[in-house]
Specification:
Number of strands: 0
Strand content: under 5%
Distance between the termini: 52 Å
Structural class: mainly alpha
Order of helices and strands: HHHHHHHH
Helix content: over 70%
Number of helices: 8
Largest sheet: none
Radius of gyration: 19 Å
Length: about 200
């Protein structure tokens, strides 16, 4: 039943043989580059943010790393072929024939969004991250390199990891964030950089 739904949903989302070029450009950008923009956003937020924002960004980063580790474990235990490996749909971006479930790109972005939400970040921040995750999830199915259930799995992995870390390891992660922040600020102070190059917000 799940595989039947998976194929039907894939056929509904996957691009046609001759897609709209503008939509194809947007999908390729979302699928390949948005994750790098998210990483750049974390770095920028860390540089410019105060203690509270740094703590939430650190928690989000840890959550994404752990969720990615869970993905690797799942892929190592169970191989699910990608659509192009079984000759279904249309593929518009190059990809190696690796296990499709779950999607690493989507998992990382869902993990960031859910960690920011559970960590108490501003709604605008986690909503932006969640929008990015949904955009990436759509684009990778649209381009033919993932199944819809891969994205459901990505959300599930991200949600479970974010919830467990928030419930069980929040305090040590916050201590880790404070330690890393002190080391970072100390290094910049030693170089005389903070006030001249990296003024922080609150």
């Amino acid at each position: 039943m799940f595989e039947t739904w998976n194929r039907l949903a894939f056929e509904a989302i996957n691009a046609p043989a001759a897609p709209n070029l503008y939509l194809l450009f947007v999908a390729r950008f979302l699928a390949s580059w948005l994750i790098y923009l998210a990483a750049a956003g974390l770095v920028f937020g860390w540089i410019r943010g105060g203690v509270a924002l740094r703590q939430r960004l650190f928690f989000a980063g840890i959550t994404a790393i752990v969720a990615l580790g869970v993905n690797f474990t799942i892929a190592g235990l169970w191989y699910h072929p990608r659509p192009f490996e079984v000759g279904i749909g249309h593929q518009f971006v190059a990809h190696l024939p690796e296990a499709s479930f779950p999607s690493d790109h989507a998992t990382v972005l869902f993990a960031l969004a859910l960690a920011l939400l559970l960590g108490g970040a501003r709604r605008a921040l986690w909503a932006l991250a969640l929008s990015a995750a949904l955009g990436v999830a759509w684009s990778r199915v649209f381009l033919g390199v993932h199944w819809p259930l891969d994205m459901v799995g990505s959300f599930g992995v991200a949600a479970i990891v974010a919830a467990l870390l928030r419930l069980m390891l929040w305090a040590p992660i916050m201590r880790g964030a404070s330690f890393v922040s002190r080391v970072y600020d100390g290094a910049l102070n030693a170089l005389g950089l903070p006030d001249r190059f990296f003024p922080r917000q609150g």
